[in-house]
From TrEMBL:
Keywords: Membrane, Transmembrane, Transmembrane helix. The keyword Ligase does not apply. The keyword Transmembrane helix applies. Residues 157-179 have a biased composition (Polar residues). The chain crosses the membrane at residues 184-203. InterPro entries: MAST_dom, Sarcinarray_fam. It comes from Methanosarcina barkeri MS. Coiled coil: none annotated. Residues 154-181 are annotated as: Disordered. This is Sarcinarray family protein.
Length: 208
């Protein structure tokens, strides 16, 4: 049974890591606990429930752009909670106009315990528009970390929670595409949504 769970987990990892983090419009450098991840490397740590870890991105924009970005997972419950950072988990950051340059966003998260004894990826989703245009120039999503969450509870010090900055972001003149789910530029996640319900049921039943 554990072997079958492992195989399903590896399939999910492969499906969530096929979207590139770079294009002609910009590039993204990704860090896990302040360590730069080269290329498409995905870290696979073992974490305790409540154990903090950091995800950071350096996003370089090659032109003046509208930007959406969020840290998320597979849209199943709330596997992680943001302790500190610019946005809550699975909530979009929105920037109406950013000049060309490099922008840094960092989140400190912890596993909530919903997936104890299992694995759940931590993803970065992003979308870039020309200023004044609703149609995105590029959209992507990729996996940064694929933690195994043990059934132990973290006993160490946890950073103090902060109010996510995303709640104070301007909501005026947002492109209509912000409220869309997954455009045709991200077919991997349309496929993933179709099999996710079966995987979740299988994993939950396998724990009993």
């Amino acid at each position: 049974m554990k072997f079958r769970i492992f195989i399903l987990g590896m399939v999910l990892l492969l499906l969530t890591n096929i979207v590139s983090a770079g294009s002609q419009y910009g590039t993204i450098d990704v860090y896990y606990n302040d360590q730069l991840l080269p290329g498409k490397e995905v870290v696979k740590p073992t974490l305790k429930i409540g154990e903090p870890f950091k995800i950071k991105i350096d996003l370089k924009l090659n032109q003046t752009s509208i930007l959406f970005v969020k840290i998320c997972s597979l849209r199943v419950g709330t596997p992680y909670e943001v302790i500190t950072g610019p946005s809550e988990f699975d909530k979009k950051l929105y920037f109406e106009s950013l000049d060309p340059g490099t922008y840094t966003y960092e989140w400190t998260l912890k596993p909530t315990g919903e997936w104890e004894g299992g694995t759940m990826p931590v993803n970065i989703w992003y979308q870039i528009h020309n200023v004044g245009e609703d149609k995105p120039l590029v959209q992507g999503e990729f996996t940064v970390a694929y933690p195994y969450i043990s059934n132990e509870h973290y006993q160490g010090e946890t950073p103090t929670s902060e109010q996510p900055a995303s709640e104070n972001q301007s909501t005026s003149k947002k492109p209509s595409s912000e409220n869309l789910s997954s455009p045709a530029s991200a077919p991997a996640f349309s496929l993933l949504t179709g099999i996710l319900a079966l995987v979740v049921i299988f994993l939950k039943l396998s724990r009993h």
